[in-house]
Amino acid sequence: MADLAERGHGSAQRDPRVIVALDVPTAAEALAFARRVTPALCRLKVGLELFTGAGPGVVGELAARGFDVFLDLKFHDIPTTVARACAAAAGLGVWMLNVHALGGVQMMQAARDALEKGSARRPLLIGVTVLTSHGAHTLSEIGVETDPATQVLRLAGLAHQAGLDGIVCSALEAGIMRVRFGTGFVVVTPGIRPAGTAADDQQRTMTPLAAVGQGADYLVIGRPITQAPDPVAALEEINIQLRAPF
């Protein structure tokens, strides 16, 4: 795998670490938030709700404003279909996209190969392991009789084997990811909740500063910012906390 400086549209610098999840149904709402912030303050995530409601055009509009866009669609299908979807996503100018590691090594390798055939400044490709809304009970329901951390480690190993740039996991597993795979393997952590905010539907959470201390590269934060009384102030406060020395 190449150094971070050679992958995606970002540089080797991880700042800004915060990826704001634009979990809204319309392009108008997403762009209204984007007008209030700058690419120096955050990156932006387009997920299933916004992509389905607004279409791929919103990704291009956000990218045209200078934002690094994380396209969070968790592709999981047969290798050929996923490879073609990843190639199409790269054409939108995204900074990072993901596939689900449950698709297996062959599927993830096909996705990686499809991106390698494109521009040298290809998007970062990361694998989703276990959703932060899932706990041991949820895994047991679907026939996975291991604890979340063990399952995360198993799927992260497959993503690493397939040559992906990193993984998505909860901050609770970030430390072991960093020990096992080193600093060149990107760790993206959703389920981040600043102190005093509601957990909502997340089960495995951590504060922003604690997550970075565990080894997270990027923090996906949605409702604690977008639904705050003053979203920009909430984002700036998190960035101030992240600049504090450990």
- Name the structural class: alpha/beta
| Secondary structure tally, helices | 11
The tally of strands reads 8
Count the domains: 1
Overall spatial form? globular
**How far apart lie the N and C ends?**
29 Å
Description of the structure:
By secondary structure, the chain is α/β, with parallel strands linked by helices. It has a single domain, classed as TIM Barrel (Alpha-Beta Barrel). The protein has eleven helices and eight strands. An eight-stranded parallel barrel has the order 1-2-3-4-5-6-7-8, surrounded by eight helices. Helix 4 links the parallel strand 3 and strand 4 (96-100). Helix 4 packs parallel to helix 5. 45% of the residues are buried.
Topology diagram in text:
Blueprint: E1 18-21, H1 27-36, E2 43-46, H2 48-54, H3 57-64, E3 69-75, H4 79-90, E4 96-100, H5 105-116, E5 124-128, H6 136-141, H7 148-161, E6 166-168, H8 174-181, E7 186-189, H9 208-214, E8 218-221, H10 223-226, H11 231-242
Parallel strand pairs: 1-2, 1-8, 2-3, 3-4, 4-5, 5-6, 6-7, 7-8
Task: List its salient traits.
eight-stranded parallel barrel; globular; alpha/beta; TIM Barrel; disordered N terminus; 246 residues
